[in-house]
Amino acid sequence: MSRPAGGGRTPLWRDRTFGTYWVAQSLSAAGDSFAYLAVPLLVLQATGSITQMGLLTAVAGAASVAAGIFGGVLVDRYDRRTLMIVADVARLVLYGLVPLAWLAGPQVWLLFVVLPICEAAGMVFQVAAVTAVRNLVDRDRITEANGRLQATYAAAAVLGPLLAGVVSARFGPATAIAVNAASFALSAAGLRMIRLRPAQPDGTAPVRRERPLAEFLAGARFLWRQPVLRSLTVLLSVFIFLTYGFTDVLVYHVKHDLGGSDRTVGTVLGLAALGTVVGALLVAPLRRRRGFGVTWISAHCVCGLALAGVGLATTVPTVTVLTAVYLCCLSVGGICSMSLRQEITPDHLLGRVTSAFWSTHYALGPAGAVALTWAAARYGVPTVALVAGTGCLLVAVGGLFSPIRRAGAEPRRSPVAIPVGEAG
User: Fold this and answer.
1) Nearest 5°: CA angle at 227, between 396 and 218?
2) Domain holding 113: CATH number?
3) 404 CB neighbour count, 10 Å cutoff
4) pLDDT tens-digit readout, 271-305
5) Parent domain of 246
């Protein structure tokens, strides 16, 4: 645990519990990056259709949103570590079915079964993982912990797509998915080795359990009543509509428009992931110096410019650099938003507030993925990227006219009182 030690505290990298969690999730992230590339390649290889890629992304996204509605209730009711292990084991089994089925030839229908279930399990895992940070480190180290976790995830993701591109080119995308399946076994094993801190009393009334929907709505009400969180939810819902299908469009652009191979796509995604590493390392000092509002708005402004540039780029190196800039700023904005929720939400509501945020945030994502990929096939990537990038700029402008602009570096807990009936 991170505890005061004389004049200072134990560095996070020397904290055994946090370090074990850190390593386990980094290995899982490395495996995830295989599926991140392999699934679109598998669909494109079997169907040659970017629209099919977008449809699969949409179906999986819808399952994730549906799982998010009750994922927070599960996380606040049951042991968070156990839920994460169960989600890992489920994804190990399901993703493992794909390469086995592919031995008999392309089975695209199976992806429409497996991927939504895995995304639903992944949503529960993500909600639990976000809330677990509160039980790993002290409150004033949450942004630092998130930054370190995200930086390491991204560092693992740099190597992942590079290797996935090589594996996909040599052995096929189905084999790359098998590597992803194995990564969940490593993550589950690491999680079994740690224990989370018990929740600290926050002065609220005793928790009273209610119906799952009522408990979910308690988290949604807290989210809506906190001005900064409400503004973030609305603006990020628009942002996710515009960007949810970005990976599919990027893969299509590199392969179809620029004539790249599977290995080229893996190289682009792997090198671009360095941007996520940089963003994760920069977010804590940026937020301390510039404040939450300036950091978040600036990050999304640059995201819009980079996204528009990706569509207009005519060379693979330019696409790689612009994608890296996009991912860097996406990392900065995402970690800022996640850290703020963790800081100002009571622990007994954190799972439900997180799931309410993500369910609302991602609700428009599936429709956006279908729209973005359909438009890219019909009107071309440059037009779609320009429109999406302009929309992201408008999201940043919206932040200037919301409570986000006035949010400081260390937002205080919302003064909203949660009645006993809503605390469950």
Assistant:
1) 125
2) 1.20.1250.20
3) 26
4) 887 888 888 888 888 888 888 889 999 999 999 99
5) 9-197+207-422
